[in-house]
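Ligand: pyridoxal-5'-phosphate. Inputs:
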Amino acid sequence: MDFTLGELAAFDYRETAFRVLRLFLTDFTDAEIRAAVDSAYDGKFATDSRGLRRELSSDVAPLTSAAGLRFLELYHGPTLAFKDMALSILPRLMRLAAAKRGVSKRVMILTATSGDTGKAALAGFAGAEGVDIAVFYPSEGVSPAQKLQMTTQEGGNVAVAGIIGNFDDAQTGVKALFTDPDFVAEMSGRGYAFSSANSINIGRLVPQVAYYFHAYAEMCRAGALSPGERLGFTVPTGNFGNILAAYYAGRIGLPIGKLVCASNSNKVLFDYFKTGEYNTNRVFTPTASPSMDILVSSNFERYLYHKTGSAEAVRAAMGGLGAEGRYVLPDSGEVFFGEYATEPETFAAIRDVFGGGALIDPHTAVAVHACREYRAETGDDTPNVIVATASPFKFAASVLEAVTGAAPEVSGVSGAIEELSRVTGVPAPASLLELQGKRVLHPDVIEKDGMEAFVRAFASRRNY
Ligand SMILES: *Cc1c(COP(=O)(O)O)cnc(C)c1O
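Predicted complex:
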């Protein structure tokens, strides 16, 4: 890091993003990075529906407070979840990188999504020159609003399919396509190179590092922190990408406190941090926080490498994961602390925070519960910011049930959204209200072993 924390406290979001990105993207010029940042973090982050009360300043990623907690709101982008923070800028960075490397092939982006990455990637890449994108989501594993956001996506270069399976199946399937030499050669013969919009692409993680610096700056501006003091975060975690970005922020010089890794009932990571054993041999449980319904957290592999410094140790662990669905590699607990919330605890957190003046989504609610548990268990009173990852209106039926105490008697995606807005007095985002009237352009639901054929058919349709 080549700026002081005192200087950081004066940066706005774009300046922070520029200063952080240039530390990682050393093949890019400052002018290129600045242009990418300026075009990514512009008016499209001006979603005016505020789930949480906006007490403190800011534009792209406001810091707010309610119920004695502080929130970093990362869901004011075009698709209303934090995935926009990276996927608004990734297409630009990839275009620049392709030009620099002289890549002449057309790029086929394969994406597995637990609900939010898919739409954010579609929004980022729809209509992009030289790029086609295929998205796979668990057909029964996303919220109705998430599903409609994806299946109504327009653009000639996009394809979307539900798979009969869960997110782990989708992610495993996509990784298998990337590493199948025959399929790679076949697609190469058609003029395609593969790429990813998932967090296996480091271009997803780097832009996410920036908002941890931004949160720190906002805390300083709010007078809640002095430059140099530690700041902890609680991150609702699925694939371990968001929280890993916080870890990277610490590695390059941000004084981070404990990173509380918040899981829902699929608490593989909680058990890991308690016991040192990562064990996926358990029942996959669909929850009200579907974007965290994940047993194999892809980015955990990266962390294992950083903590052991040994590719050999990581290979052995991943070998165990593949063969037995488990491995043992204890953690020091120096950086991360695992917590989790059950469904009743998640709903109670939504209700309680609403009583405290803010409307939060179920993923954020998992983090609220985790943050409180962490504090109660450890007595650590270092300032801690909860990362708010999605608009509550993307999960309107669950949030409505939590707030009113009864399952909602409304129909359709708009029904729950409008009712939630009526009951809470919080305006619903227009882009979600418009979904109901849109035509479903991508009705396909396929078997999980049908992904290769789906991509092949898409490429043929593109006539490439
Ligand atoms: C993707 C997502 C998460 C989990 O983030 P990871 O980087 O996969 O750990 C949490 N909340 C929401 C709303 C998400 O979309």
